[in-house]
């Protein structure tokens, strides 16, 4: 028989916890981690993580802290924005927590809130000269939409490739291995949208 505390954890979760649950799922997807990989990294059981992501259990402070550590962010970053005014989510250019990657190849900045109800992700990608962004296949049915803001790039999806320049756009399957390569001599800036199938 469940204790009153266990029963409370399975009741409808509060808005703050709902935000955290969705954010955890989004962060895991962006790293292409399985639940088991996150469990191994965080020390939180796979079953608990699954309940948290489904919104059927409230993550305790201790659990949320360990998950945040696994993603390399602070607990404050994990819950940041949960109390933002309804209907408007602002991402400032100066907010470093939205920089997903920054290395010799490229810089990727998240432009979409992590608590989106729909499975859509929006990025600004800066590819340095000869920089290459390689991605393994995403969930089945995933597609990417890309627009070149500046520079020249080559996009490959499976066995198909195309060269794009400033102002060009393309959409392609992202449930196969795919890559974006800067073929110019200057930084290439692109806007990238990932749309996940609702069936995953």
Describe this structure in words.
- The chain is α+β, with helices and mostly antiparallel strands and 200 residues long.
- The chain has 2 domains: 4-79, 434 Repressor (Amino-terminal Domain); 96-195, Jelly Rolls (Sandwich), CATH 2.60.120.10.
- It has 6 helices and 10 strands, in the order H-H-H-H-H-H-E-E-E-E-E-E-E-E-E-E.
- The strands form 2 sheets. Strands 1-2-3-10-5-8 form a 6-stranded antiparallel β-sheet, with no helix packed on it.
- Strand 6 (152-157) and strand 7 form a beta hairpin.
- The radius of gyration is 19 Å and the shape is elongated.
- The relative contact order is 0.13.
Properties at a glance:
single chain; 200 residues; alpha+beta; 434 Repressor (Amino-terminal Domain); Jelly Rolls; 2 domains; six-stranded antiparallel beta sheet; four-stranded antiparallel beta sheet; 6 helices; 30% strand; disordered N terminus
């Amino acid at each position: 028989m469940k204790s009153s505390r266990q029963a409370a954890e399975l009741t409808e979760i509060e808005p703050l916890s709902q935000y955290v649950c969705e954010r955890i799922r989004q962060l895991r997807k962006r790293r292409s981690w399985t639940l088991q990989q996150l469990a191994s990294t965080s020390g939180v059981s796979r079953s608990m993580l699954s309940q948290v992501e489904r919104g059927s259990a409230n993550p305790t402070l201790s659990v949320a802290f360990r998950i945040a550590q696994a993603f390399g962010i602070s607990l404050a970053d994990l819950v940041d924005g949960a109390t933002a005014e309804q209907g408007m989510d602002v991402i400032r250019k100066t907010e470093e927590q939205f920089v997903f990657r920054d290395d010799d190849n490229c810089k990727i900045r998240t432009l979409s809130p992590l608590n989106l109800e729909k499975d859509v992700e929006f990025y600004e990608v800066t590819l340095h000269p000869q920089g290459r962004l390689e991605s393994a296949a995403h969930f089945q049915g995933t597609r990417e939409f890309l627009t070149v803001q500046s520079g020249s790039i080559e996009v490959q999806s499976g066995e198909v490739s195309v060269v794009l320049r400033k102002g060009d756009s393309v959409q392609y399957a992202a449930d196969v291995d795919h890559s974006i390569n800067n073929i110019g001599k200057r930084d290439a800036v692109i806007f990238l949208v990932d749309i996940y199938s609702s069936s995953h």
